[in-house]
Design goal:
alpha/beta, Rossmann fold, Transcription Regulator spoIIAA, 3 domains, six-stranded mixed sheet, four-stranded mixed sheet, 19 helices
């Protein structure tokens, strides 16, 4: 424990010889801003009567020796996290391959990457948590603790019987993704001076998103949209304000919360009564911006916000299921400017299915009009390129080739620069490898290990594929037939594959 940490829950102080490490594949300051990771640690620490220790990529000294650790769990949120996870296993001299680990801790992982498609990593983990982990992690730890004297294979067999747990060595089972009801409010349980968001109390207002854009894993992996009851939110805000004046509201679609405006009013009234509060939100929906919401953000010190419009043309927005009219976008900018925000960042994508040159030109026309009608208002754009994700209607679409996407990327940046708008575009080359991993199967297990051993840079991905004779374009660029068996089909996530096929056809035929 670091002296700068403030615990907002009652830590387990009972001595236990069952040691659980919870690993975060990034530096300490990032881990302290990860709500999901901290909440998992809190739940296990409060409930399981074990000795829990948080381990990050920059952890120098541990309280427990690795020989005493029984379980080592990892948060796996981004496709490239495997590189840091492997380096952490190496750091503690733990073999990467599960079948080479006898007498070592059970290694497991949870998070959106492995909930969607764990197959490229199945040979490295003993088990995976599929879906929401609040209860499943506790069940897993209790099973392992209760049956610690059994052989590893017997413990894994018991784990495989739990809904929401995938054990690769126990084959042939359909695994159901677990969705929690969200009756309670998830919040930052440990505040830290050294967090990336210093002493910020993060509150999850809602989980999931009912917009269901055709490309969006965050929408489909977290269905249905669940909102924390208003009373619980207010209770949690008041708890946080006892310890800090920095509040952040989190959720893929927080403005869809039926009481979002009431929450903003509550915070605004506290600020107006003299309470010093810094407030921030993850992003806002274009069609949910109103003067009261913006006034609350401005009163809480927020100067800029982000609006996701995804595509420049109304046609393409309809294809991806983003039903935003151009006038709604301009109205949102007007409200933001007139009520005190200093600027907006617009988020978009290139390479979406059916995208044409005309769609890119529409994005530029939109940007030019926003700029000309809002002089002195800071306008910027951020873009990524389309990456097909499992369990979405667009999972059957491959990407455009890298050369084509780089041409589009350079065109947008050049043209936006001409009209005085700054822009940032994610690396098309890195996005390609994310697509490979996203739609990968178990044949990529050797590839990810080889890539890690080769240093994990862009060149390592390419050289590893060549060395192992893997056609990575098959995973990243090919369009798949609807009747193709997909590597992740064994994971049961509502609304199911048949619905996704129908939705794909509905959107593309618009």
């Amino acid at each position: 424990m670091k002296p700068e940490e403030i615990f907002l829950y009652k830590k387990n102080t009972q001595l236990s010889d069952f040691v659980v490490w919870m690993g975060f594949p990034a530096i300490y300051s990032f881990s302290m801003s990860s709500l999901g990771y901290l909440w998992m640690c809190k739940n296990i620490d409060e409930t399981c009567e074990v000795a829990l220790e948080r381990i990050c990529s920059d952890t120098e000294k541990t309280h427990y020796d690795i020989k005493d650790v029984k379980m080592f769990g990892f948060s796996f949120s981004f496709d490239l996290d495997f590189l840091t996870i492997f380096s952490m296993l190496d750091k503690y001299k733990i073999p990467l391959r599960a079948d080479e680990r006898e007498g070592f801790p059970l290694i497991f992982a949870g998070g959106p990457v492995v909930s969607a498609n764990p197959e490229p990593y199945k040979k490295f983990f003993d088990f995976f948590i599929i879906g929401d982990g609040e209860d499943t992690n506790i069940k897993a730890v209790n099973i392992c603790k209760k049956n610690r004297e059994l052989h590893k294979n017997e413990i894994l067999r018991l784990l495989s019987e739990v809904e929401g747990i995938y054990v690769p060595s126990v084959s042939g089972k359909i695994v159901k993704k677990v969705s929690e009801k969200l009756d309670e409010c998830i919040y930052t349980p440990i505040l830290s001076e050294n967090s990336f968001f210093k002493n910020t109390f993060i509150i999850e207002m809602a989980r999931g998103c009912s917009n269901c854009c055709g490309f969006c894993l965050a929408s489909y992996l977290n269905l249905p949209l669940r909102c924390v009851p208003y009373e619980k939110l207010i209770e949690t805000i008041d708890l946080g304000l006892k310890y800090t004046d920095r509040i952040a509201l989190l959720g893929a679609q927080i403005s869809a919360h039926p009481h979002f405006h009431d929450v903003c009013d509550y915070i605004y009234s506290k600020i107006k009564s003299g309470k010093n509060i810094e407030i921030s939100v993850s992003s806002l929906r274009v069609d949910a911006i109103n003067p009261d919401v913006v006034k609350t953000l401005v009163a809480g010190g927020q100067k800029n916000s982000t609006l996701a419009i995804e595509a420049g043309s109304e046609r393409l927005r309809k294809v991806i299921n983003k039903h935003l009219s151009e006038e709604q976008i301009f109205n949102a900018v007007k409200i933001a400017r007139e009520n005190g925000l200093k600027g907006l960042k617009f988020y978009g994508m290139i390479g979406l299915p059916t995208e044409t040159t005309e769609d890119l030109e529409e994005m530029l026309r939109l940007a030019k009009r926003i700029k000309s009608e809002n002089k002195g208002f800071d306008i910027s754009f951020g873009f990524s390129s389309f990456v097909p994700k499992p369990h979405t209607p667009f999972q059957w679409f491959g990407r455009e080739n890298t050369a084509s996407l780089e041409e589009k990327s350079n065109f947008l940046q050049k043209e936006l620069h001409k009209i005085g708008i700054s822009s940032r575009i994610s690396s098309v080359k890195w996005d390609y490898w994310q697509a490979v991993l996203s739609r990968g199967d178990e044949n990529l297990c050797d590839f990810v290990e080889e890539t890690y051993r080769a240093g994990g840079k862009l060149g390592a991905f390419k050289s590893s594929a060549k060395k192992l004779n893997i056609n990575t374009d098959y995973y990243a660029l090919e369009n798949y037939d609807f009747d193709k068996e997909l590597p992740w089909d064994f994971i049961e996530i509502p609304p199911g594959k048949e619905f996704l096929i129908k939705e794909n056809k509905r959107l593309i035929n618009k």
